[in-house]
Design brief:
Length: 727
Amino acid sequence: MHKIKSMCFIIGCLALVIMLSGCLQKVEKTPVNYYVLEYQPGSEKPELRRANNTGKNLEVLDTVLPRTYDRNQIVVKENFYKVKFLQTDVWATRLRDAIPNLVVQRVKAYNIFGTVSRGEILDKEPHYFLETTVYNIEKIEGAEPRAYLKMEFVLRDSTSERIVLSHKNERSVELIDPSMIYLVQAFNDMIMEETDLFAAKCNLYFSGHKIDEKSLATSASPMARYVYEEMFASETVNDYGELMVITKTQTEEELRYTIEELDSLNSVISTDELVMGVPALLRPGRYRVIIGEMEDLIIPVQILPRQRTVVKPNWGELKIVIMDESKSRVRMGYDLWKKDAEGEGYKIYSGGMVSMGEDEVGAVDKLWILPPGSYLVKLGGGSWSDLKDFATVALAEGDKKTLTMIVDPAAEGNVLIGAGVFADEDIGLGSKRIHRGAIHGNISLSSNNNVDKKKPTSSVSLAGQFDNSIDTHELIKPFHFTTRSIYDLGLNKTSNQDLIFSPDDYSLKSVLMLYPMEKKKFLRNFAFYGRMNINTHFFDETTYFSENKNIILQNAEGDICSTLLDQPDLKTKIAFYPLRLKEGTGLTYQINFSPRAWTSLRVGYGWLQDYNTSSYVFDKTIVDTQTGLSYDRYIEEPNSSSKGIESTIIFSALNLLKFVSINSTLDVLFRMGVPDHTYRLENENRISFKLFRNISLDVKFNTFYDEAEKPWMVYDYTTFLRLSLFY
C-alpha cells in the first residue's frame, strides 16, 4: 500500500512537471533583432581613387571605443547626460571589429596604399598603422531624432611611431524614418563618409599639400575644396545646446515666451516663440529671453554646446482665485494694478481679466508671470483709489503665491468678504471636486421643423434645469469616470397650442475611460472607453387642440386600436416613453490645443435602442367616405434597435475672448446588419456668452438625421437668457 502511494506521488509530481514545462514553453519572449555594418560596393567617390598607389603598406588596427559604446546594445541618448541601451536591438558583431573591416575595404578601393591589411601575416612589415577611435555612435532622441557619429583617424609611422596625419570629425543625420534599419544604415553611411574624408586627406598629404583650414580654403584643388566644405563649412546639430525656462508653480496652462538671438553688437539676428517647460534646441551663442504678460522681463542667456541652460527666474508667480464662502469658484472680472516705483499709488498693469467659474470644467487658473513688486487686485472695475473690493500682494524674485479672494456674488454693495495668500492645502485649493451641481433658469424663444419641413413652429418658454455631474479626475487612475445628469422642466406656449408643461426631458451620459499609457508623452491622451446614454421624460405628454377633433389611434403593427370622437386633447406620450438608450465601446484620443480648448475623437462599436410604448405621432388627416367625418390619424412609433460602427467628435473651448464658451458634439452611427446600411447623425452645439456673474446668453443648435425616421434633416434651435446658481 505504501509503495502504491509512493508511485502515485511520483506520477503526480511528473505530471505537474510536464504541465509546468508546457506552460513555460508557451511564454513568449521578446525577439532580439541583430544588425550588421556592411560595405556597399559602388558607393565610392571616383575622384578620390589614385591612378598609382604610394607603394606603402598599411595595417588597420581594432577600433577603440569608450565602455559606453563598446557593447552589443545600440545606444540611445535621451539628453546630453542620459543614455539607455536597447535590449532587443543589438549589434551582431562587436563594433571594434566591424568598423575597421569597413575602413579596410574603403581604403583599398581608393588605391592609396600598396597593401591594406587587418593584422594578416604579410611578406613585408607595414609602413603605417591606422588607428581609429569612435567617441560617439548613438541615436539622439528629441523633437527631431538624429543619428550621431564622432570619430577619429590617426595615421602613424610604424618605425618612429610618429603621427603623420590625423582626422577627427563629427556628423549627424536626421532620422526621417523612425525604423531601426534606417538608423543602422545612417551609421554605416556616416562611417564611410568619414573614411572618404580621411582618404582625401591621405591623398593630399602624399601629394605634399598642406591640410590646415587656411590652405584648404584657398586651394584650387577639387579634393582640397571637398575636405574644406565637409570639415569647416557645415554645422553639426549636436553642437547645439538646450534652453529650459520653467515655472515653480505647477500649471497645465501653456505659457509662451520670446527668444531673441543676438550677434556680437547685441543686434537681433532671429526671433522665435517657445513654450515654457519644453526644452528648446539652439545654436551656441548669446540670447535674451523675453517673458511675462507685458513682455517686461528680459533675461540674457548664454547657450553652450552640448549643455542645458536653465533660466534662473527673476520674476514672481501669482495665481488669483475668487470663490464664495462655500469654496465654489466664482467667475468675476478684475483688474491688476502695480505699485508705482517712482511715486505714490498704483498704475494699471492689466485690465478686463476674468476669473475661472465653477462650471468651467477643464479650464485652469491663469498663472501670472510678473516683475517683482507690489500688486493690487481690484474687483468689479473702477480705480484702485476707490479703496473697496481690493487686495494687495507683494512678489519678490522666485516667489510663487496664490491670492484667494472670498466674495459674496449677490451682494449689492461691496462683494469682497476677505482675502489673503494661502497655501493650497490650507483652504482645499489643491483638492478637486468630484461632484458639481447647478440650477439654471431659462427664458427662451425657439423654432423647429420637426413636424413639418416647410412649416416650422415657434414657442416661448420659462424653464428650469437641474445639472449634476460626477468626475473622478485622478482618484482611480488609470481609470477616469464621468457622468452627467440633466433634467429640464418648464412651461411652454407655442404658436398653435395652449400653455403646457414643457420641456420635460431627462438625460444621463456616463463614460468610463482607461488610460493604459498615461506616462508616455505622445500616447498619454489615448484611452479605451465605454459609454452609456439614457434619454427619457417623467410625465405624460398631452397635445391640446384649438378645436375638438376626431382621432384614430393606430399601433406599431398597423392595426387600429382606438377611435375617439370630438376630443379636445390627446395623450401622445406616457411617462418614461420614448426611452432611448445608447451604448458604445472603443478607442478615443484627446487633442489639447490649449488648457482651455480641446477635441476628443472616438471610434468604436455602438448600440442603439428606442422604446416607444404608447408614443404616438401625427400621420395625416383622413376622411371617412361613408360618414363624411374627418379623422386625425396618430401612429404609434415602433420599437427599434440597431448596432454598428460609431464615430464621435467632441470639441470644447472655454473662455474664448474671456466671455465665450463653445461645446459641440457630432455623433454618427453607421448601421450594420441592415440592407440599406443607413446611418444616424446627431449634432449638439451650445455657445454661451457670459454677461455678468451668473447670467449668460446661451444659443443651442441641434441637428438630427435618420432616414429610417424622417427623410429630412431635423433641427432644433433655441436662444435663452440663463441665470445659474452653483452648489
